Amino acid sequence: MSPQTRFAAQLWRGIALACVLGxxxxxxxxxxxxxxxxxxxxxxxxxxxxxxEGNSVRVxxxxxxxxxxxxxxxxxxxxxxxxxxxxRLPADVQAVIVAPSLVxxxxxxxxxxxxxxxxxxxxxxxxxxxTAVPLEIDDLYETLIEVSxxxxxxxxxxxxxxxxxxxxxxxxxxxxGKALNATIDKLGKASGTLDGNKDDLFATVTNLAKITKxxxxxxxxxxxxxxxxxxVSAFLSEERHNFRETVxxxxxxxxxxxxxxxxxxxxxxxxxxxxxxxTKTLVDQRAALTEILDIAPVALGxxxxxxxxxxxx
Length: 313
Known about the structure:
Domain Mammalian cell entry C-terminal: 119-296
Keywords: Membrane, Transmembrane, Transmembrane helix
Mean pLDDT: 79
Helix content: 55-70%
Largest sheet: 8 strands, mixed
Strand order of the largest sheet: 7-1-4-3-2-6-5-8
Radius of gyration: 51 Å
Pfam families: Mce4_CUP1, MlaD
Shape: elongated
Domain Mce/MlaD: 39-113
Protein name: MCE family protein
Structural class: alpha/beta
Distance between the termini: 179 Å
Order of helices and strands: HEEEEEEEEHHHHHHHH
Strand content: 15-25%
């Protein structure tokens, strides 16, 4: 082999080795950086009918990621997803499989959207208690069949009770559509009013609860009061005849008092005026009266002590 041939062979081997090394480096870089802009999350669903790899992952209906793997695992399905790293999800986020229609591909919706607080970490796991799947057609058919059997001739309508109920309801609602509509409308307005005043309503309920608690705490006192009130009522009932006579006498007495006042109102007015003057004089002289009351006992004591009973002097 000539030197030129050996050089060419070595050159080709070097080029091939460089290409292989380049591919290895590119693969390593791709493997390292492929998840640099996404977060990964795993969710477990009771089923995943119609959900496939490549289906979208959404937040508020906007595609934010992709389903990477759908793996059946006995009585549940493991779904691995990735989503944009810039999207924040609440730590307690739920994952729901959504079926826009019967034939279209399904997607995973994260709900509720993030509004604040802790966020979902990368490589987080969402358990079955926080996932949901749509109602399947077969399940819907089974439910309808069960309802029809329950309400059918072998169930609630076995004796025709349901038929009679529907007939009676139809007769009662006949020609009452406007009245029923007005009633529902008023109920709606009433609900709106209650909603607008829910703070006052809740405060009222709270106060009623406090009053009820107060009554409960004072149950013994309330029972005693009720017993005493019952005793008073019984006493008044037993003495009603005496009270009747007393009221009659009191009525005649008050009539006489009224006549006396009417006949002597001028004198009474004069006496009251004079009494007012007397009381005013007493008020004006209250200092002197106070002094007399303080000194009088001492003076009387001196008089008694000054008298000698044996000598009479």
